[in-house]
Amino acid sequence: MCMVAGTAIAQNQQMKALIEDQFQFAREQYKVLAKNVSPTVMPKTYYQQSGKIETSDTKWWCSGFFPGSLLYIYEYTGDTAILSEAKRRLNILEKEKHFTGNHDLGFMMFCSFGNAYRILKDPAYRKTVDTAAASLSTRYRPNAQVIQSWNASKKWGGPVIIDNMMNLELLNWVSDHGGDPRFKAIAIKHANQTLKNHFRNDYSSYHVIDYNLQTGEVVKKQTAQGAADESAWSRGQAWGLYGYLVMFRSTKDKRYLKQAKNIAKFILNHPNLPQDKVPYWDFNAPTIPDPKTNRDASAAAIIASALLELGQYTSKQERTKYVAVAQQMLTSLSTTAYRANLGENGGFLLMHSTGSLPGNSEVDVPLTYADYYYLEALLRYKNWYL
């Protein structure tokens, strides 16, 4: 056996063991989290200093991630107690299929009910997904050809955030599976406007674009959670990368794949990407290179999951590069530097995510979406590369 082949086999065995260990840990840790959180609400985060878990109602944009993570754990382990908990949480979330208050229906309903239908094939879950897509479509503003993210405020009249790219998967999936074709048409128009207006010449993304919703004119380009209007907020770059892969998967439009590759190039070649590949909360955080600069484990988890999908659409040489970085990210996240010990961290898996540092909200804490995309990336690695 040649040395290269031997190394590849050893790496595969190493990753297989790592994935097994993380899912067995998640299986027990999420039982702790479930016990810590009332069955009428969803877990949001945990504060180490106070020892308190913060929860949310089901209208919070993160409400789909806990049941989604439970479903990923069930998919890997087959643990029926985990499945029962997932179903309990789906039951309290189901009513949000009618929610039209912002753009987050994809996060809320597809990460939860989309996975539930994929795994369990219950037609009731399919109906919930269809209804959620119809609700999301009400946010579409035809004159500007975008889905409005947040409602108008004193600060913005027609805000669209890069995160919105993640909600397009819900629209695409429903259209691609026999639903209203208008949903996918909306997703394409939104993706094209975002491609046109959200990105700089280096393929980094603004966080917020404020549109004149009557004319489609860009009023201003700003940030809400990044270090500055012209900075590259790390999770925003992750959302963009993942979102354009979602669009390529559904449409096979090569412009979307090209955009994803260019975003990946920006991220992976950035001089401020740390050695362990877990990004600082913003690529232009003013405190870099101070090692105390906050990291964002959630950004690493999302990027890792996206890179694994990008590897499915690229040549062998490119695939090797993308998968290697994703593997490095997942390995880093699985160390004690980022992954909690059993029974600690309130029951969440990962530590050291950053929600909104400028708003002093959810700074250096666990977050449900960090756990969700971490589990998704581990499953993708197992299913696609082992």
Automatic annotation (TrEMBL):
Q: Which PANTHER family match?
A: HYDROLASE, PUTATIVE (AFU_ORTHOLOGUE AFUA_7G05090)-RELATED (PTHR36845:SF1)
UniProt record similarity statement: Belongs to the glycosyl hydrolase 88 family.
Keywords of this protein's UniProt record, alphabetized? Hydrolase
According to its UniProt record, which residues of this chain constitute the active site? D104, D163
* Annotated residues for binding of substrate: D104, D163, T223, R235, W239, S356
GO biological process, alphabetically ordered: polysaccharide catabolic process
Q: What is this protein called?
A: Glycosyl Hydrolase Family 88
Organism from which the protein derives? Pedobacter insulae
**This protein's record includes keyword Hydrolase:** yes
Tell me which InterPro entries the record gives: 6-hairpin_glycosidase_sf, 6hp_glycosidase-like_sf, Glyco_hydro_88, UG_Glycosaminoglycan_Hydrolase
Q: Which GO terms describe its molecular function?
A: chondroitin hydrolase activity
